[in-house]
Every structure is written in structure tokens, then in C-alpha cells.
């Protein structure tokens, strides 16, 4: 645990130092010259946002976009503890609320995309899972996200709507950990986002189920109060909610807001 | 003429040394101490003392603590069973590639624990090299079980034991063993009656370090054994998940872990290992 805390501290320091540099040079010279935009985003946005970051850098010569991807709750905690982020994109309104309640958001968060849960099964489906009802079967090894993280909260809702009682063998710390355990075949099934199955590229198979529609995760995005690069933050958010952003996100498997 | 005079001057200097530490060393030493101790004090300062009692008595906290103590103890037992013979082999048997083997034994010390967890999954998982066979032959699987937690902790903690015991064995006086051999004792008897008692303080020190390391294990455990209250959720895992939503609860859990670790390292180390110094 101490190791992890130390890593977080080191990372925050690194981000701090980076932003300090950017702040120092921002006053001088041409617009955008040598600035760094810092975006904190949910881990599930990794692929889509990395692509949007490159687009943004292309349109703003001299600007670097730096991402910190991670569990939404962890990122939210870091922002409320003063991590110098410019933009925060969360995987659920609940984690965003942590930031807005603390007065660390500038303006109201906008929902820019949505994600749907699917059942992920290993290649070949050894547990013979076809529908959500199968998850309650005795002896089937199911892994879910911990209820403290957005994918876990969504899983609880979806399973409750489906009326299936699942006794998972593990409650993982994030959705990528669920994916790993299913991909390695240690678990027979897990609930992950549709985008995760897409990003896993054939390692796991996704099974859609209608009850997932009742547990769709809204992804809000907001400019952080006291953002070191406030103007750029606004422009990045416009890119994400705009047509280009929507196209990239839908290719990754996200749904329109 | 000059030699004895210099020797006596060195002796005088040495006598005075303990009372006169050079500031060049003392300042960074104090800074180092502060760096290690201040974060722990931070926990104490920020702890929600008023609600501490009720938070501690929550079923989930007690369950995680019980599981942590149980698995760390079992892991230490496993390490003793396998680690002492391993240390003896490293210290007393000459074999080719001894250097390489010694390096391999200490790899878990520097390996990121998450990597250790992944490695364990690939070997002992349900589809792993060994785990697959165990599952087919005996229906035995480790991931998501308390046994899996014990294995993950033992993997990370065993090097601490092996290094301590090997060091003690190398420092031990071989003449006692030779004397026992000339008196007709067999190898196994010598090991049990002479070698083991000789290195007992080293074994005790290693066990304590091993136990404390197992107690704090996080990465390999959550990767290999998963996280389920009462079965695989140890204290460090509970702390991590509490941090997601309730930092106050995480501080309380951290405090418990800190108290247990400090108590064990301070009290037991002095009592059991005092004689080794």
C-alpha cells in the first residue's frame, strides 16, 4: 500500500513539476507556444482520448497534451487533493460529483458519451454462457468490479434489473482487471464495458444483454477550477463533445450522449 | 617507534568517535529519518480519532484483519518449510550456477509485485503450466481462494527469509558441525541438533521480516487471488478500495496495519533477535 501511495505521490509531483514548467513559459511568445494541457481521464477512455490528443496537438502547434488515465474515483480524489489538472473526464456522474461538490470544477459537467456493459467470456466460452441468467449458475466463476468503482456500481444495477443473483469469486479494483482475469481464462465470465471487449481484440468475446440498457454509464467532462491552462481546456472539451470526438468515440464502441 | 604511537592515537580517536558525530553525516541522517517517519506521523495526525472505535469494529474490517493475520502466518510457515532448506543448500552445497540460482532467489525482492502476480497466474492459474494440470487431475485451483493469497504472499516474502537464514549459516562456526560428525552424528541429526539451533536467531529474524512483508503484500495478492471479503480481501486490499470512496476509512485501516507492523517489528525483533547482535 505504501508503495502505491508513493507512486501516486511521485506521479502527482511529476505532474506538478510539468505544469509548473508549462505555466512559466505560457506568458511568453506566440499563442500556444510550449504549453502543456493536462487531462485526467477514466481508464476506459485510454484509446479514444489518446487519438483525440494527437488531433488536438495537430491543430495547436506547440501544445502538448498529457494524459493521466486511471480509475475515475482515484483521479477524482487526486483532483480534490489539488492535483493540477486542466480537464477531468469521469466514467460516472457519481465520481464527477466528488469533484463538483468540492468546488473543484469550473462550470457544469457535460455528458459527452455513454458506455454499456456486456458479458465478457474467454475465447471458446468454456463456461457455456449465453445470457445474463447464466451468470447465477452454481460453480460458474464470475468476476465483477468492486462496487466502489463505476463499473461495479453499473454491474449491481444491471444484475438487479435482470433479477439474477450472482455470487462473484472476486470483486476487482477496476474494469481492466476483470478483463485480464477473463482473458486468461481464470474466470468464466465477467461484466465489462463494450469498449473494453473491443479494445481486447479477440482475446474475449462480448455478449450483449438487454438489461444493460438500464445501467448505462454516462461520462461527464469538465474544466477543472484553477486549471493552469483554462483556455486550452475549453477547446479540448469542445473537440471531445464535437463531431470529431463523437466519431472517434463511436469507433471505440461508445454510444452517443 | 612511530607505529605504536599512531596506533595509540587511533585508539584515542576511536574512543571519542561515538560522542562526536560529524555534522556532514548527521544532517542527512536526520533528514532521512524524517523522510521515513513523517508520512507515518501524517497518518496519525489525519486519523479520524473520534469515530475510530466504531470504524474498527465494522465486520468487514475485522474480517480483513483476521484474514491478513491468518494468511501472513500461513505464508511464513510455508516459507520456513521451503526457505530454510533452500538457504541451507545455497550456503553449504557447492554446485554449478550457484550465482545464478542465488540471483533468481532474490528476484521477487525487486520484481514489481503485480508482475509476480501475473507470473503466478500464468503458472499456477486454472490454465497455467502447473495449475492446468492440478485442475484436471485433482480439481485444485488457486486463484480466488485463500490458498492463492498464501501463495502470492509467500512468493513475495520468501526471499527475506532465505537471505537472513543464508547469512546466518555462512556466519555460523562450522567446527561444531564437524565435531558432531566426528562423534558419529548423521547429517540429518547434525542439521536438526546443531546447525538449526546455531542459526535460530537468524531464522527468527527472517521469519519476522517475512511475516511483516506478507502482511503488507498488495500487488501480487490482488492480481493472483483477486478481492473478495472474507476469502481473499486482506487489509492492504481493503485499504486500496476504501481509498476510492472513503479516504477516512482508508486512513483507519492503514493505521491498524501500521500499528500491527510496528508492534511486531519492534517487540519481537528485540526479544527474539537481541542475542544475535
UniProtKB/TrEMBL annotation, chain A:
<feature type="signal peptide">
    <location>
        <begin position="1"/>
        <end position="22"/>
    </location>
</feature>
<dbReference type="Pfam" id="PF13531">
    <property type="entry name" value="SBP_bac_11"/>
</dbReference>
<dbReference type="GO" id="GO:0030973">
    <property type="term" value="F:molybdate ion binding"/>
</dbReference>
<keyword id="KW-0732">Signal</keyword>
<feature type="binding site">
    <location>
        <position position="193"/>
    </location>
    <ligand>
        <name>molybdate</name>
    </ligand>
</feature>
<dbReference type="GO" id="GO:0015689">
    <property type="term" value="P:molybdate ion transport"/>
</dbReference>
<feature type="binding site">
    <location>
        <position position="44"/>
    </location>
    <ligand>
        <name>molybdate</name>
    </ligand>
</feature>
<keyword id="KW-0479">Metal-binding</keyword>
<protein>
    <submittedName>
        <fullName>Molybdate transport system substrate-binding protein</fullName>
    </submittedName>
</protein>
<feature type="binding site">
    <location>
        <position position="72"/>
    </location>
    <ligand>
        <name>molybdate</name>
    </ligand>
</feature>
<dbReference type="InterPro" id="IPR050682">
    <property type="entry name" value="ModA/WtpA"/>
</dbReference>
<dbReference type="GO" id="GO:0046872">
    <property type="term" value="F:metal ion binding"/>
</dbReference>
<dbReference type="InterPro" id="IPR005950">
    <property type="entry name" value="ModA"/>
</dbReference>
<keyword id="KW-0500">Molybdenum</keyword>
<feature type="binding site">
    <location>
        <position position="175"/>
    </location>
    <ligand>
        <name>molybdate</name>
    </ligand>
</feature>
<comment type="similarity">
    <text>Belongs to the bacterial solute-binding protein ModA family.</text>
</comment>
UniProtKB/TrEMBL annotation, chain B:
<dbReference type="InterPro" id="IPR035906">
    <property type="entry name" value="MetI-like_sf"/>
</dbReference>
<feature type="domain" description="ABC transmembrane type-1">
    <location>
        <begin position="65"/>
        <end position="268"/>
    </location>
</feature>
<keyword id="KW-0812">Transmembrane</keyword>
<dbReference type="GO" id="GO:0015098">
    <property type="term" value="F:molybdate ion transmembrane transporter activity"/>
</dbReference>
<feature type="transmembrane region" description="Helical">
    <location>
        <begin position="21"/>
        <end position="45"/>
    </location>
</feature>
<keyword id="KW-0500">Molybdenum</keyword>
<feature type="transmembrane region" description="Helical">
    <location>
        <begin position="144"/>
        <end position="165"/>
    </location>
</feature>
<dbReference type="GO" id="GO:0005886">
    <property type="term" value="C:plasma membrane"/>
</dbReference>
<keyword id="KW-0472">Membrane</keyword>
<protein>
    <recommendedName>
        <fullName>Molybdenum transport system permease</fullName>
    </recommendedName>
</protein>
<keyword id="KW-1003">Cell membrane</keyword>
<comment type="function">
    <text>Part of the binding-protein-dependent transport system for molybdenum; probably responsible for the translocation of the substrate across the membrane.</text>
</comment>
<keyword id="KW-1133">Transmembrane helix</keyword>
<comment type="similarity">
    <text>Belongs to the binding-protein-dependent transport system permease family. CysTW subfamily.</text>
</comment>
<dbReference type="InterPro" id="IPR000515">
    <property type="entry name" value="MetI-like"/>
</dbReference>
<dbReference type="InterPro" id="IPR011867">
    <property type="entry name" value="ModB_ABC"/>
</dbReference>
<feature type="transmembrane region" description="Helical">
    <location>
        <begin position="100"/>
        <end position="124"/>
    </location>
</feature>
<feature type="transmembrane region" description="Helical">
    <location>
        <begin position="249"/>
        <end position="268"/>
    </location>
</feature>
<dbReference type="InterPro" id="IPR006469">
    <property type="entry name" value="NifC_ABC_porter"/>
</dbReference>
<feature type="transmembrane region" description="Helical">
    <location>
        <begin position="65"/>
        <end position="88"/>
    </location>
</feature>
<keyword id="KW-0813">Transport</keyword>
<feature type="transmembrane region" description="Helical">
    <location>
        <begin position="194"/>
        <end position="214"/>
    </location>
</feature>
